[in-house]
Design a protein that fits this description.
The protein is 41% helix and 15% strand. By secondary structure, the chain is of the alpha/beta class. It has one domain (5-194, 218-249): NADP-dependent oxidoreductase domain (TIM Barrel), CATH 3.20.20.100. Strand 3 (19-20), helix 1 (26-39) and strand 4 (43-45) form a beta-alpha-beta unit. Helix 1 (26-39) runs parallel beside helix 2 (53-63), helix 4 (117-129) crosses helix 5 and helix 7 crosses helix 8 (214-224). The relative contact order is 0.15. It binds nicotinamide-adenine-dinucleotide (NAD). Nicotinamide-adenine-dinucleotide (NAD) is lined by residues 20-22, 45, 108, 139-140, 161, 187-193, 198, 213, 215, 230-233, 238, 241-242. Substrate binds at residue 108. This is Aldo/keto reductase. InterPro entries: AKR (IPR020471), Aldo/ket_reductase_CS (IPR018170), NAD(P)_OxRdtase_dom_sf (IPR036812), NADP_OxRdtase_dom (IPR023210).
């Protein structure tokens, strides 16, 4: 399937639909990542804390796909926000991945209680200057901490990866991103199996109309909004199914019907402000 790409500051264009590997057991990470690459994914989202960078790296190496055709993201964990620790953590991730650079490096959580997000951001800027990472961004930043890193450094994150799905649409942050030219990336794009999202009648009706699956409809909704999305599955048929969502185009009315599913209490994961 032809996956659309978006321009991203610092790196080659980012494929809008990628493969996420949160909670993928290290023992199967190489196998499922290889399946994703064979299916046609060219964007992989991992993190130090997932413990599976080595498996992801092995699949990349064995795929034979030219490095420049891949977009690889990893993330700085909360225990390494101090400047020197962050530099060392990135070098260690690259070592485990077997790569000279990642296309995107993210601060995984702002963790406001630690108060080191600005220092960590300065480390990412240094890593970018050194060429170890192409684009730099953040994840799970409350609006205040996002403003603080921009204010302190004048460097705007290229992308912000946040929990985002039809039950939790993050309109406030998306408006801030639009003001600053920050891409929005959705984690938990399918709701992480924590709700009845994929059985919601609005979603299933659209799926039936297109001969598509509910997961594909939700992913097509993300794409229609210009959001980068990184669904996870370790089931071979779903790995393929999710990528094929790139070819599903929703009507404006269908997008609006899913827009109407946003909920006050739709958050499924940790509130970044409380960490
Ligand atoms: P997700 O919304 O992608 O849900 C994954 C789950 O949905 C699967 O385990 C499976 O149960 C189900 N599923 C997947 N495909 C399906 C299909 N076609 N039909 C029916 N059910 C299907 O949740 P996620 O894995 O938490 O998020 C995606 C990626 O985002 C992660 O793998 C990770 O890379 C990233 N992530 C980042 C953070 C962060 O803090 N930055 C947090 C969570 C996840």
């Amino acid at each position: 399937p032809a996956v659309p790409t978006l321009e991203i500051r610092g790196a080659a264009p980012i494929p809008q639909l990628g493969y996420g590997v949160f909670k993928v057991d290290p023992d199967i990470a190489a196998d499922v990542t290889a399946q994703a690459l064979a299916a046609g994914y060219r964007h992989i989202d991992t993190a130090k804390i997932y413990g599976n960078e080595e498996g992801v790296g092995r699949a990349i190496a064995e795929s034979g796909i030219p490095r420049e055709e891949l977009f690889v993201t990893t993330k700085l964990w909360d225990d390494a926000h101090a400047f020197d620790d962050a530099i060392a953590a990135c070098e260690a991730s690259l070592e485990r991945l077997g790569l000279d650079y990642v296309d995107l490096y993210l601060i995984h959580w702002a963790a406001p209680s630690q108060g080191q997000h600005v220092e960590a951001w300065k480390a990412l800027i240094a890593l970018q200057e050194r060429g170890l990472v192409r684009a730099i961004g953040v994840s799970n930043f409350p609006a205040q901490q996002l403003a603080e890193v921009i204010e302190a450094t004048g460097v705007v994150p290229a992308i912000h990866q946040i929990e985002l799905h039809p039950y939790f649409q993050q309109r406030e942050l998306r408006a801030i991103h639009a003001e600053h030219g920050i891409l929005t990336e959705a984690w938990g794009p399918l709701g992480q199996g924590k709700s009845d999202l994929l059985e919601n009648p609005a979603v299933t009706a659209i799926a039936e109309a297109h001969g598509a699956t509910p997961a594909q409809v939700v992913l097509a909704w993300h794409l229609a909004h210009g959001i980068v999305t990184i669904p996870k599955s370790v089931t071979p048929s779903r790995i393929v199914e999710n990528l094929a969502a790139a070819e599903l185009e929703l009507t404006a009315d269908e997008v609006a019907a899913i827009d109407a599913l946003d909920r006050e209490d739709g958050r499924g994961g940790t509130d970044p402000a409380t960490k």
